[in-house]
Amino acid sequence: MAELSARGRRAALEDMARTPPEVLVIGGGITGAGVALDAAARGYRVGLIERDDFASGTSSRSTKLVHGGIRYLPELDFALVREALIERGRLLRNAPHLVHPLSFVLPLYDSSRRPVGLPVAVPGGVGLGLILDAGLLLYDLLAGRENVARHRRISAAETAKRARGLRPEGLKTGFIYSDAQTDDTRLTLAVLRSAAERGALLASYAEAVGMLHEGERLVGVEVADRAPGTLGETWTIRARHIVNATGVWAEEVERLAGDATQLEIVPSKGVHLVFAREALALGDEAVVLPETEDGRIIFIVPWQSSALVGTTDMRAERADAGVADEREIDYLLAHLNRFARRLVTRDDIISTFAGFRPLLKLRKRRTPARLSRTHAVVEGEDGMLTVAGGKLTTYRQMAEDVLDRIEAREDRPATHPTRRLLLAGGEGLAETRPAVLDRARSLGLAGEIAGHLLRAHGADALGVLDLIAADRTLGEPLVPGLPYLRAEVVRAVRAEQALTVEDVLARRTHVALEDRLRGVGAAEDVAALMARELGWHEEERQRQVCAYRRYALEQAGPLASRLEAELAAAAGMD
Fold first, then answer.
1. Which pLDDT belongs to residue 367?
2. Among positive and negative, which fits the CA dihedral 138, 358, 392, 47?
3. 101 near 88, Cβ under 8 Å?
4. Fewest CB atoms within 10 A around its CB: which of 39, 173, 457, 552?
């Protein structure tokens, strides 16, 4: 069993350099994590490197859904929908603490003409109810035995009751259908921890800066240590099979290897707005805004303490830092207010976030909405395998396809161990749940805190409670009103390879999204806890706090001036 800790990270790099892994994965998002787990589960010696934090790119910036994608039905992409629905069912079984069923309310208005991205407008909206009913029936049938629940049609009155934040005027009818929801970052971490439990060596802040060839064959990677406070050492890691799983950056890695690019990847930028649930009168069901003028689907999704509204789908020339801009915020607000019962303004926004999807460009596809969400595995002339495209929901299938290619190279029969493999935190969850609730109660923690720990850590929540039992101050919240505890900072360093304050506030927890101050007020406390764990000097602790403040202001984008004013006001009250 390898150690997924901040201190164990250097040992992992040394081990990879000393004893070459059979499979080396470049990229620590959900796809790379999936490849590492599948390879380790099949008995390979595995290494993985990621140039930033795990899940710091696309894999922490999704709509947090595990779904087939009803928007792909009008595009007749039935194979993609079927694959995603099957994988949705597997994730519900394999990660029961992190993936949960979620009901969606789809309203239909008198004014609706192209709901859920229908390719053509229906004159007068005649027959739209029947079309949607048939489409959702197909969605159910494509899921087969993996279906969560059958869709059903509901009255206008029930639609208005379930979607209380939308205006009731003009409602004709509505539909309820089911998909699932996850915590994308913690899902990635669970996959990585599962890989580490099977011996995979994992290192964040380790960037591929060069490639090693013997003849025409790629045999290794030059890796620069980018961890905070390190001396920037470079390691040579050799491997028999090298997998490029870097998402929207896959072409960059292909060029680094000297390969002709095998795939044309078009980054598509997706922006989300985060609100308090009360601002949108949102309960525990998601709501689908029935249509936009560009054929997109916008969801209002209950997530943690908040409500997410998104997403956009804008073609980007390159994947940058991923910050929402004025135009994108206005786009989402305009479509939200087209249906919202009360006017929603920028003042209601808690935070924003943006990410880039790695869409594959296929013939006769012209716009991001028409680009393919399917995935592909291709082999370069030097032997490097590149996997790209796909979506969060299908990460396991993508990884399986990569390992099937490797098994074919090795002339070994393909096995598929991850189809029924419980992820870290999922094993023994049912038996552990009562113990977690009792232990939390004995430590004076509220029921909602225990629920949060179970959702975030599964059966491993007992480990968090052990930390609190040893030091009761670790049971205090990082931010009043949010469930994240100081103990989770310690666990993030010891068991989730967190190396920076940003790693903790933006990804190990979601304070950066759910707190109106984006976690800046908690940065000092987090840095102090991490300093104790990692041996930071005062200079490094202060540098981390300042770096996090810069990150928060950068991510705020057009809302940065408001954030600065609120931070100043909060400092004045202190």
1. 40
2. positive
3. no
4. 173
Backbone φ and ψ for 213, nearest 5 degrees, come out as -115, 150
Amino acid at position 439, single letter: R
Burial grade of 459 (CB within 10 A; 0-12, 13-18, 19 or more): buried
Beta strand pairing call for 385-389 and 241-244:
parallel
Query: Residue 185 has which token pair?
Result: 């970052």
> Which residues lie below 8 Å from residue 531, measured CB to CB, with a gap of 6+?
537, 540, 541
Mean pLDDT across the stretch 240-261? 91
Residue type, 211: M
Name the pairing type of β-strands 99-109 and 286-289.
parallel
**Which two structure tokens, joined as six digits, stand for 266?**
């078009």
Q: What is the dihedral sign for C-alpha 51, 41, 504, 352? A: positive
Q: CA-to-CA distance for 97 and 100, rounded, in angstroms?
A: 8
* Phi, psi torsion values for 281, nearest 5 degrees: 50, 45
CA distance 81 to 84: 5
Report which residue type is found at 228: P
> Which contiguous run of DSSP H or E holds residue 78?
helix 78-94
Q: Which residue type is seen at 386? A: T
Query: Any residues with CB less than 8 A from the CB of 165 and at least 6 apart, and which?
Result: 280, 281, 282, 287, 300, 340, 341, 342
Cis check for the bond before 311: say yes or no (omega within 30 of 0). Answer: yes
State whether the Cα torsion 278-279-281-287 is positive or negative.
negative
CB 474 within 8 A of CB 491: no
Rounded CA gap, 437 and 221, in Å?
46
Say how many Å lie between the first and final Cα of the chain, rounded.
46
H or E segment at 158?
A: helix 156-162
Q: b/e map of 396-418 (b: 16 or more CB within 10 Å)? A: bbbbbbbbbbbbeeeeeeeeeeb
Angle between helices 461-470 and 429-442 (to 10 degrees): 20
Token pair, residue 178, equals 């089911």
Nearest to 107 by CA among 3, 5, 177, 182: 177
Please answer whether residues 73 and 81 qualify as being in contact, where contact means their C-beta atoms are separated by less than 8 angstroms. Answer: yes
d(CA 443, CA 80) in angstroms, rounded, equals 47
Q: What CA–CA distance (Å, rounded) separates 501 from 548?
A: 6
Round the average pLDDT of the chain to a whole number and report it.
Answer: 93
Percentage of the chain surpassing pLDDT 70? 97
Contact (Cβ atoms closer than 8 angstroms) between residue 439 and residue 462 = yes
369, pLDDT greater than 60: no
SS (H, E, C) 468-481: HHHCHHHHCECCCC
